[in-house]
Specification:
about 750 residues, mainly beta, Jelly Rolls, 5 domains, 10 helices
């Protein structure tokens, strides 16, 4: 019993009971007198007012209760006078008056009872009856106090529910006592038996219902801000959520449950930090960013959009490890309730591999892709530009265009090179022809499916800044499909028109363009880019601005790195090649380099913020300075720039293709493109071909070894791209030690 009491006491519901005012019951006092050679037993009853109360506890820990413990209980009865007649016979009766005062019954010890189906409980309880009495008769008077324990036995019925409890149908049992002999005449004894009939008297009170036990699903299953099976590991939060939505503990802990946990419990996703990503396979998975913080790096400008720039807040992290090489598509496209943003990295603080800037059919939700390598773990960062919310993240295999490896693609089967150049929005067909001529190429003629596919896969056309022109033109009035020819007059035996094209709508669509997927369209005389084809691709990515053309003699090289790097890394890479990031100490130099290299489309991000290649301009002590140390003395900036957003510079354009404008940006704004400048060698001693500060026979040997056409050779002293007799004369004229 003690064990039971201890266990139940830990989880109990208390209640204080009282007797309503005006209650009454019947008290019967039976008196037995023995003496004078005889004995007699008489009873008298009185209807008495009753008061009192009890302190009870119900258990074990939840409704419906099965146990009641009475901790303290007392009954108080009103004073009464009872009349008796004893030994009645021929000589009359012995009349006795009994005055009872301060009548009370007190429970001696706490008592525990089990409730049956009707709410009845029996207690192994002892009561203490106490009262003051006065006996008055012709033979004797006696007074004193009664203080007598009852025999075990007490019962009552309990009505419990809705915070109310009533104790009724009370049976106290009989209480036996003796009048002390020293207050009676010698030879006389008086015994008393008191019985109380409570009638309709009851005790009642209130209690605070204990909370129901948590659903079985609570306390396990996973974090309350993560999706999984029913329930979650925070019991209190789980109970709160399941009271609102019972399905959260019966079916699955889905997005609605997660949202409730975030709102009412402040639950934080377990994958809030980069170092604790949630592993995902292929499929669609619910997630939330509610209550998450932001621990990822700033986005680069190439990941921005016009509405939200590069803001990224409230991120959560996932990991994915493909089991075979394949394109991986990551998306919240049209299945999230907030404006989302996605970025993919090769590790915490690692290289950014892909990002989404809300373009395409997804509206404010996102999708992006990258090429995954079997066994490599990738980190997927999901958040929003400003707000937080919930949704589903989809990871699937799909066709992901391979990353362009170079701003120039050389077809190994033909040896021809292909490159995209920006023209400027609204440029004409003639502008495209002029660019091609100036760069030593032609508008591309894609005469076979294989050639067309090579361009799509290795030099994907773009529409950023305007359509991309190719070498397809229409002669005559045989509209819409007649008269088309390649500008080289190669046979037009194969075409790749997009469905419904050409259609001469609007009128004047007499020129060919190519879409990113490789299909063609007839286009009016307005372009933003041109696809050029080169028979000699070696001369495309490295150009020398010759002295005789008014140049500096420097050589410039366009570089597309395998992954995006910041300005400092780009500067270090340029120096590792023996050059520097390009310094444009004059507007003429910048324009010359831009026209030949800076406008290579694949050096640019081709996004809303179209970030172009890094340059050597940086802010030093508040002054814009080139890597050479020369300060900026012309205006290279785009409209509204510089605007204080960074301390280094790059080519850039907003909502368009490549442009001859610079932007100030931050050093970590990673990009793949840069232009390396290799300064002219020995300009004060042009005959010193081998750079030993001596013009002698060894320099003549170098000239003879490189005799003939030689674009950019050190032996080409006069810079005419031919090593010949004029270069021999240059050596002879400078013979001797360099000054």
């Amino acid at each position: 019993m003690l064990t039971i009491l201890t266990a139940c006491c830990l989880l109990e519901t208390p209640a204080d009971l009282t007797v309503p005012g005006g209650s009454s019951g019947n008290l019967t006092l039976q008196i037995a007198i023995d003496g004078f050679g005889d004995s007699d037993v008489q009873s008298a009853s009185g209807n008495l007012g009753i008061a009192g109360g009890s302190n009870i506890a119900m258990g074990p820990d939840a409704e419906p209760f099965s146990l009641v413990r009475i901790d303290n209980a007392q009954w108080f009865f009103a004073d009464t006078d009872l009349q008796y007649s004893f030994f009645c016979g021929l000589l009359g009766c012995l009349d006795v008056t009994v005055e009872l005062r301060n009548i009370r019954a007190t429970l001696l010890n706490p008592a525990l009872g089990g409730l049956d189906s009707g709410g009845r409980a029996n207690f192994d309880a002892n009561w203490l009856l106490e009262a003051d009495y006065l006996f008055t008769s012709a033979l004797f008077d006696a007074s004193g106090s009664i203080s007598t324990p009852t025999a075990p036995g007490y019962a009552a019925t309990f009505d419990i529910g809705n915070g109310n409890v009533t104790m009724r149908d009370i049976a106290l049992g009989s209480i036996n006592s003796e009048v002390p002999p020293d207050s009676l005449p010698s030879g006389l004894s008086v015994s008393l038996q008191t019985t109380v009939n409570f009638g309709g008297t009851f005790q009642q009170g209130n209690y605070t219902p204990p909370p129901p036990p948590p659903p079985p699903a609570c306390g396990g299953g996973g974090a309350c801000a993560d999706p999984h099976g029913p329930g979650c590991d925070d019991v209190s939060c789980c109970v709160t959520v399941c009271e609102i939505n019972p399905a959260c503990c019966n079916d699955v802990w889905g997005l609605d449950c997660i949202a409730l946990a975030a709102e009412f419990c402040g639950a934080v996703p377990s994958n809030d930090r980069c170092e604790n990503p949630r592993p995902l396979d292929l499929g669609r998975f619910p997630f939330t960013t509610l209550n998450s913080d932001t621990d990822g790096p700033p986005l680069i400008t190439a990941c921005g959009d016009q509405a939200t720039a590069i803001a990224f807040t409230g991120d959560v992290w996932f990991s994915h490890t493909p089991f075979q090489d394949n394109g991986i598509l990551v998306s919240t496209c049209n299945h999230a309730d907030f404006d989302t943003r996605i970025a993919v990295y090769d590790g915490c603080g690692g290289t950014l591999l892909a990002c989404s800037n809300d373009e395409g059919p997804c509206g404010q939700t996102s999708q992006c892709g990258f090429f995954g390598v079997a066994g490599q773990t990738y980190l997927i960062r999901v958040g929003g530009p400003f707000g937080r919310g919930s949704g589903e993240l989809d990871i699937a295999w799909g066709n992901v265009p391979p990353a362009i490896e170079s701003p120039l693609a050389v077809d190994p089967s033909s040896g021809r090179g292909y490159a995209l150049f920006g023209l400027g929005a609204g440029s004409s067909w003639q502008d495209a022809l002029d660019v091609a001529e100036g760069l030593g190429g032609i508008l591309a003629t894609l005469t076979t499916p294989e050639e067309n596919n090579f361009v799509v896969n290795h030099m994907t056309p773009t529409q950023v800044g305007g359509p991309t022109a190719l070498g397809l033109v229409q002669d005559g009035d045989d509209e819409p499909s007649g008269g088309w020819r390649w500008i080289t007059n190669e046979a037009l035996t194969w075409t790749n028109w997009r469905e419904g094209e050409p259609n001469e709508n609007p009128i004047g669509e007499d020129f060919g363009m190519i879409y990113p997927d490789g299909t063609w369209n007839d286009q009016v005389n307005a372009f933003g880019n041109v696809l050029l084809e080169f028979d000699n691709p070696d001369a495309v990515l490295e150009r020398k601005w010759r002295f005789e053309d008014g140049g500096t003699g420097s050589t410039y090289r366009a570089v597309l790195l395998p992954s995006a790097v910041g300005w400092n890394e780009a500067a270090g890479y340029a120096e590792s090649l023996g050059g520097t990031l390009a310094d444009f100490e004059s507007a003429a130099e910048a324009q010359w380099v831009f026209d030949r290299l800076g406008s290579l489309t694949k050096l640019w991000s081709q996004t809303y913020y179209n970030g172009g290649p890094w340059t050597g301009l940086r802010l030093e002590n508040g002054i814009w300075t080139w890597r050479s140390g020369a300060t900026l003395d012309w205006v290279p900036w785009g409209p509204g720039e510089p605007n204080g957003t960074g301390s280094v510079s790059c080519f850039y354009n907003i909502n368009g293709g490549p442009r001859f404008t610079l932007d100030d940006t931050f050093e970590s704004d990673a990009r793949r493109g840069l232009i390396v400048e290799f300064p002219a060698v020995n300009t004060s001693c042009p005959g010193d071909v081998n750079q030993d500060d001596l013009v002698n026979f060894n320099d003549l040997v170098n000239i003879l070894a490189n005799w003939g056409p030689c674009d950019g050779c050190d032996a080409d002293i006069d810079g005419d791209d031919i090593v010949g007799f004029s270069d021999v004369l240059g050596v002879l004229n400078g013979w001797g030690a360099c000054q």
